[in-house]
Amino acid sequence: MKTLVLGGAGYIGSVVTRLLLQEGHQVVVLDDCSTGHEDAVADGAELVREDIGRTGDVLARGGFDAVLHFAAKSLVGESVQQPALYWHTNVMGTRAVLDAVTEHRIPRLVFSSTAAVYGDPDEVPIPETAPTRPTNTYGATKLAVDMMIGNECTATGLAAVSLRYFNVAGAAWGAGERHSTESHLIPIALDAAAGRRERLSIFGDDWPTPDGTPIRDYVHVADLARAHVLALTAAAPGEHLICNLGNGSGYSVRQVIACIEQVTGRTVPVEVARRRSGDPARLVASGDRARERLGWTPERDLRGMVADAWAFAQDRAASAPATAPATAPATAPAT
Ligand code: UFG
């Protein structure tokens, strides 16, 4: 297929681009590189450095079979502080994408949605039929886009898949996490293990879970990438298919830290901080629909994610120009 990848210079988009190329697809990446990195775009993909508002200019070239849409603002805390930025970029930006997809009669769309649409769930594992009650602006904007895509499918015959990611981790084919503002548990804990950061703050150890720390469902970015390739052909014309992507098993923050210490052979210095606002206690995906509709089952476990993320982070640190050792403490954000 000839594909347009919106946000192909970011973490997940750059990994999916690599797999698409490996599988023989043609890829054009559109990314404004505001949070992504030009050098993360896979060799073999053309980069158009533009805002997603210009999607129509690229689709006008003709011949595209599918759009994969990863381009979004995705920091939960920032979304609560700057809601307008999230509604403009994620919702208005995607409106422009959908207009272009319709105008140029692109038959298929794959969209990066999130488990954040479910908010604090009544039960785990979470099926796609669970109530959607996002607790932050990020989740609300992704839910709005899911609804907008559903309406578009009904009206135009577009075949679309929204993939609701749980906690994505790991690295693959030379691409991995390189956020300038890092908020995710695994990269922060790896940096603490490596001495690039003083310590990891555990955001609360008084949650209603067995060891008191929150439980999440971690999924390897390479498994996630495979789900996107399968999603390209999973929906029928006019259908909007929604699938959760997780491993179906939950790990607490303390279990993740223990795994990191085992894999790296280093200690992760920690302190217990107050809870982060908006964090649910437990998020685990039901994988039934992804298995049935995409034929997808994840193959890599937490250990594999940590090992791959560690190798990627160590490689990058080794090739980075020498700087003073980072001493910024991992402080808890204002709640
Ligand atoms: N955590 C810490 N200390 C840190 C960072 C995280 O204790 O320094 C804890 C969090 O409280 C949480 C767990 O580690 O319990 C995982 O936190 P992450 O920030 O890595 O991930 P989240 O579960 O908050 O969020 C992820 C994605 C979001 C998405 C959400 C959906 O990053 O984009 O999953 O559930 F919305």
Automatic annotation (TrEMBL):
EC number(s) stated in the UniProt entry for this protein: 5.1.3.2
Which EC class heads this enzyme's classification? isomerase
Residue ranges constituting the NAD-dependent epimerase/dehydratase domain according to the UniProt record: 4-240
List the catalytic activities from the record: UDP-alpha-D-glucose = UDP-alpha-D-galactose
The record ties this protein, via Gene3D superfamilies, to: NAD(P)-binding Rossmann-like Domain, UDP-galactose 4-epimerase, domain 1
Which pathway is this protein engaged in? Answer: Carbohydrate metabolism; galactose metabolism
| InterPro entries in the cross-refs | Epimerase_deHydtase (IPR001509), NAD(P)-bd_dom_sf (IPR036291), UDP_G4E (IPR005886)
Pfam families in the record = Epimerase (PF01370)
A molecular function GO annotation: UDP-glucose 4-epimerase activity
Task: Give the protein's cofactors.
Answer: NAD(+)
> Which keywords label this protein?
Carbohydrate metabolism, Isomerase, NAD
The source's superkingdom equals Bacteria
Instruction: Please list where the region (Disordered) is annotated.
Output: 318-335
Listed GO biological process terms: galactose catabolic process via UDP-galactose, Leloir pathway
Assembly behavior: Homodimer.
* Family named by the database record: Belongs to the NAD(P)-dependent epimerase/dehydratase family.
Protein name as catalogued: UDP-glucose 4-epimerase
Organism in which the protein naturally occurs: Nakamurella endophytica
Q: What is the lineage of its organism?
A: Bacteria, Bacillati, Actinomycetota, Actinomycetes, Nakamurellales
Encoding gene (name)? galE
